[in-house]
Amino acid sequence: xxxxxxxxxxxxxxxxxxxxxxxxxxxxxxxxxxxxxxxxxxxxxxxxxxxxxxxxxxxxxxxxxxxxxxxxxxxxxxxxxxxxxxxxxxxxxxxxxxxxxxxxxxxxxxxxxxxxxxxxxxxxxxxxxxxxxxxxxxxxxxxxxxxxxxxxxxxxxxxxxxxxxxxxxxxxxxxxxxxxxxxxxxxxxxxxxxxxxxxxxxxxxxxxxxxxxxxxxxxxxxxxxxxxxxxxxxxxxxxxxxxxxxxxxxxxxxxxxxxxxxxxxxxxxxxxxxxxxxxxxxxxxxxxxxxxxxxxxxxxxxxxxxxxxxxxxxxxxxxxxxxxxxxxxxxxxxxxxxxxxxxxxxxxxxxxxxxxxxxxxxxxxxxxxxxxxxxxxxxxxxxxxxxxxxxxxxxxxxxxxxxxxxxxxxxxxxxxxxxxxxxxxxxxxxxxxxxxxxxxxxxxxxxxxxxxxxxxxxxxxxxxxxxxxxxxxxxxxxxxxxxxxxxxxxxxxxxxxxxxxxxxxxxxxxxxxxxxxxxxxxxxxxxxxxxxxxxxxxxxxxxxxxxxxxxxxxxxxxxxxxxxxxxxxxxxxxxx
Length: 576
Description:
Elements lengths: L1 H41 L7 H28 L14 H27 L6 H24 L8 H38 L23 H34 L21 H24 L4 H35 L10 H30 L10 H24 L14 E5 L2 E5 L3 H6 L34 H48 L4 H4 L2 H6 L1 H32 L1
Helix pairs in contact: 1-2, 1-5, 2-4, 2-5, 3-4, 3-6, 4-6, 5-6, 7-8, 7-12, 8-10, 8-12, 9-10, 9-15, 10-15, 12-15
Organism: Casuarius casuarius (Southern cassowary)
Keywords: Cell membrane, Hydrogen ion transport, Ion channel, Ion transport, Membrane, Transmembrane, Transmembrane helix, Transport
Pfam families: Otopetrin
């Protein structure tokens, strides 16, 4: 009988599970087709041009635009209905971050439009339509995420699964296209610099996709072409953030959530001064290092070696500080006895998976550098700094991942009146009674009032109790006796509270420091400061083409890891 009653509900879940599987397979095939088309354009495959790739991306964006408009219109007609929300998804600071990246992406699109106008004689129409479509897509998508990132969709679930997963992989393909374009530009600059480091045996063949015609306005063309590549890192981060937020929305479709109040955890600068100061010092020094590196690298062999040495020494110092801070935070966690929150949470699960998955990019590059140093026959002096740098990169990510993942899974501290109690000793009718009322009752002076007794008030130095008719002699208690009765429990309570606050303050400073350090370590690779290219030792050991392929595959994940870690650490700081 029980099976008969339970079978409909079990059977009812099958269509939705099938829809989830079918939509995910649809998205993967959509992505693989675009990925193959992107690869074919990158290697100059016969019959494949940039216009084919852009036409495919334009089609995907238009389909997503239609779906978002349909969803927004349907939501507008049902705005009076009460909908379930995932309070963990689409945090306000995350929406502000993606909005900032989207604004810079719109500037990038305007540069591309200007670039197309100047080279319109020899560029395809797709290269002019793409930035316009992408700008409209960016504006509507940011609005969509601001309004509906927290939605838990319960109607038209099969259709919505396909629409959301289409949006996820459309953003991933746009991310891939941006990564490839930016990587090709960095690779061309790297090939031109290699000869200055003395690696003349490497054949330099520029992979040029420049237009085969003259620009109508030379100055504007130079501004547009150079500015585009400085804005690409923000465009790349925008699309990967959008895809992760949309993926959480996809995972939440049809989900049943427990209705409980979510405590807001606003960011506060109070109590994190030390962490912010040290973090800002790292950030400012990193920006200065990047400027010097980009100026010096490629000028001459001596200047290039000095630039690489400066990079490694600075990075070693920063990574060592980050390792130390992470170890201190983990030791504090070991001293605390707080349970973990193991409830189902797609956003939190995705954060943990992305941290470990994208860290593999840096680990791959680090192990490649370690093997190159071990196997190389000749070792220029600056290459020896690469060994401790690579080892610290591996260790630092181990420690930081553990700290972040444990932090986001720890339950927030809540003041529990039934647990926080004070032992109050009072004198009644010549006898001593030991009571343990709750802190709230003690504070309000209502404890044990049924027995005719009043405890000592925390904020007063005089103990009193109600007149029960037994005489005035027992109504007056000296201040000294009162202090003796409650000084010990009060001291124990406040000392424990003080220790907890000190631990929390240290953790908040560590999270703030690591947040700024991760932003600092995101800047160098995002803006072309990449010693993995310029070191040269790995290219001799592994070969030029194989190592460049490894770097181009791993570097985007390494860059994303730093930005994602910074976002996670911001959340940790708010939560601590």
